[in-house]
């Protein structure tokens, strides 16, 4: 029996959130002499910079300084992986909106007005804007990743049936509600402390040190909480933190840089849009025999994390299906657009969505329910259970999850009802789709799978907890606190959760890849266990028992019918000169990947889920409404079912938004025109499916030795949203009266209506051909 | 001479410092001057709701009206004579307000950044509704974006907040607050000036006309709700010499039912005009419920939407289809003109210097009238239309006696489809006979492609909407993917 973990405990900041007292970067008390920064953004898409004139900006009263890349004292390159990303544009601008100049002024309106007075002379260069253009011109950021098993080409050639096609999947803006923000304060000895809304304090620290030309020990980065991250503050926060730090050191004053929403959406990277090209061979039962797939992701102007994102797309292109002969290639396209970055799912959703689409195409070709084709291809438990990267799946629970959801969602009866409805309803059509999720947990860059924690017990029995995980709303702080409280047998109110700081736990990984609670929970548990071991010796002596007989529970240490409070034991330990502090460290075991040969075990385990979504479409306009969704998601034995339910529901809606209404639109000059919530639409409360039934899988502990046998939950549920998009495809087919339909994502009302029209035309053309006997 | 702006907060009259510039928003004032940082900036354009606050004043019946508004595009001076509630004000020490408590209990916050805005939208709802119902609750939250939760727990909080009844700690103080507010009433026009410029709030139409006549030409803005003008400050960083606020001009706040027509003052907010719009036609009211958000409708006015001359303002096609006329007024007097003649070109109207829109008058449709108003956008709530179609036919024995087909998003101004109207007139309105009019829409309009929609979709959707209207009129049944009301 546990008393704290596995309980639906509220988010530690909830009372502060609702009272408005939870502080974000821009809410912090402003230090004396604070300056505000603003940026001048490139007005060209790809151009040489001939001249930068900041004289008019500097002449504005209240402006203190203006910097370009030439004012960076150290190395201006702030790329996280592959070099080539200057803090401010260097020599040339590579996309429309790239920051070129940073201004510091006494207040924000002055700084922003000054930024508009900067004059830059350009000489235009040819620009590559689209994925197809990049492929044609062989414009790539990195070499491709390929996975290969057997001979896919031969298998397709021999297969009884074949299909090929292209699919466009749009990107997505993170739209964290709190924009990027950093506050840098110079200290003595050239040191600087930067409070930054970031998922990756250690990397921000490293890059600030790099641009300042200082060792890492001179830089401290702190993040108490973010107003949302979703991957958008993994690498993207660093640029603004670095600019603030450089300005702070130059002016010897504190500097805050907080982006306006439009600037944030223009400057920062997004989810990669993809062009997928597939050819698949299959038998009469819809079983895939051979599969050739190219996944081309738009990286934008710089590499950022594109290599790893495209890798994860490739790793997840199997979705949940056994692919006997397969070849998958991932391309990292270089274009003159914003550099795309991490976003919840990290490429996985694009790979998975592609193959779910292909499965749907096979089903329509064979005139079968897509559900049957999914079941026919599903990974087995003991056979057909090896991925295209040769990892054997040992924890597959999808067959059970399909059974459970088919029953709880009443799928088969509703499928028939929908077909009947569609036959009788000329202008409104329904669609239904049920899709699985299998998501690999671990950073595919193996060395990142490490974490540290610092647990401090004070002699009054209160505990301060620090670890490398950052809090962006996902509840990693409360989950790790629950682990520590459980380990010490104390209630949560004994524990103070503190801001993530690089001077408490060094060299941490980003809070990303869903792994925050997995990694930091284990690290904190390790530290707490070490302290508990020392306390057991002290308590044993106090209680007249052997240390291994001491039980820590109910805020007490107990043995042999006697007990002492946790505070008494802590105080005694201090008196006896026993250390009450420990750092903990964790590295995920048993994972490895050989990139050159496309073989290994990149994932420690998989998280699973299934979703069935139903939609109603207006065939006059393409407008639609999701009428029902049934979700079933696997969190192992959840550390906190209330927090995890929130992740599942929120992830699903975010996935649904990505594939339906959220549309990024660039004009022919390469300018992003959807850079504000007035024109970039994320779901609202009314977009929630009308009948929304969400359940966590119960009673299935993670077979892998994770913290309290829980599973990671941040990213996997996002891909449950794929069911909504394919439900729309189902409705489009019903509306067009044909089974051959094409539906790119995002499936906006416009795409839905045009897909119906296109499918009708194709059907008419086929009918005419057949009538003509051709 | 410059006068201080006064409003009520936390039971006290707050006098705004004389140096607060005429363009300072309530959000900036709260965060930078009062250091009350609970209200957040998420977009600075009234589209995310993180800055939501509640403004209360005394309505025509003397009772307090609590309205959720976006503080990011509301100028401090617009608070003059009103009461302000922010997220920082709700809890009583450690004791959370029922709205806040419900949000905690339902796990309605994750990252917490949007939460203060949701709390205030829920507070506005709590103050104006006896209990929650799903549809109006979603209306109340349509202007608040949350990227974390998926909204389910927030909607649950909207119901749970009534668990302890409706009487929060503010309820017993309402009489005192009303008294305080009446003490802030102005005898004269508000004129708050700093070296940067002036904020002027005339109290009568004559005062307004005189002011517009007197002010030198140039950068002087007329401000109604500020849902557009606010962005000129927050996004374009423009600073006018003067802001002339219409929100205190008594005549502009009136709604007059003339029997066969309704006259709505240009300063009436969408929220206050809603019942009259519903009387004009339920389809018009349904569309208005999708115009902006609750916060936007609490600030924005019909007059402002007309005067800014946007080609995609949602109301214009509906008003044109219903045959609306405008009353334009200046020091020289007033005159009327049909609304459709007001729009000259993209963002260009017939409004002359010194002139203002005083009211819009709309005929009530007769019993032979058939009205259909359709808004198309990527998202159902709070989105700008790709196409807005408004149809008004008078049918006698199934034959079209007169036809007014007005569209937004199809041209540089809101415009009528004259060729299609001509083809419909005198014909029966059936799915077969409507087709020539559907086809000729391609000659009436050459829409453009932009981030909201392609030209192809705009035209096809416009055509399909006419077909849909015809099917609906013929069958007497509405066809919609949206939930039945």
UniProtKB/TrEMBL annotation, chain A:
Enzyme Commission number(s): 1.17.1.4
Keywords linked to the UniProt accession: Oxidoreductase
Tagged with keyword Signal: no
Main enzyme class: oxidoreductase
InterPro entries in UniProt: Ald_Oxase/Xan_DH_a/b (IPR000674), Ald_Oxase/Xan_DH_a/b_sf (IPR036856), Ald_Oxase/xanthine_DH-like (IPR016208), AldOxase/xan_DH_MoCoBD1 (IPR008274), AldOxase/xan_DH_MoCoBD2 (IPR046867), AldOxase/xan_DH_Mopterin-bd_sf (IPR037165), Xanthine_DH_Mopterin-bd_su (IPR014309)
Domain Aldehyde oxidase/xanthine dehydrogenase a/b hammerhead positions: 19-126
GO molecular function, one term: iron ion binding
Source domain of life: Bacteria
Cofactor: Mo-molybdopterin cytosine dinucleotide
Keyword Oxidoreductase attached: yes
Pfam families: Ald_Xan_dh_C, MoCoBD_1, MoCoBD_2
PANTHER family: XANTHINE DEHYDROGENASE (PTHR45444:SF3)
Name this polypeptide is given: Xanthine dehydrogenase molybdopterin binding subunit
Naturally occurring in which organism (per UniProt): Ferrovibrio terrae
UniProtKB/TrEMBL annotation, chain B:
Annotated ranges, domain FAD-binding PCMH-type: 191-367
One MF annotation (Gene Ontology) recorded for this entry: iron ion binding
The keyword Isomerase is annotated on this UniProt entry: no
UniProt KW keywords: FAD, Flavoprotein, Iron, Metal-binding, Oxidoreductase
Enzyme class of the recorded protein, top EC level: oxidoreductase
Keyword Thylakoid: no
Enzyme Commission designation: 1.17.1.4
SMART domains: CO_deh_flav_C (SM01092)
SUPFAM superfamilies xref list: 2Fe-2S ferredoxin-like, CO dehydrogenase flavoprotein C-terminal domain-like, CO dehydrogenase ISP C-domain like, FAD-binding/transporter-associated domain-like
InterPro entries found in the cross-reference section: 2Fe-2S-bd, 2Fe-2S-bd_dom_sf, 2Fe-2S_ferredoxin-like_sf, 2Fe-2S_ferredoxin-type, 2Fe2S_fd_BS, Ald_Oxase/xanthine_DH-like, Beta-grasp_dom_sf, CO_DH_flav_C
Domain 2Fe-2S ferredoxin-type, first and last residues per copy: 3-90
PANTHER family: XANTHINE DEHYDROGENASE (PTHR45444:SF3)
The protein's name: Xanthine dehydrogenase small subunit
Native source species: Ferrovibrio terrae
Lineage: Bacteria, Pseudomonadati, Pseudomonadota, Alphaproteobacteria, Rhodospirillales
Gene transcribed to yield this protein: xdhA
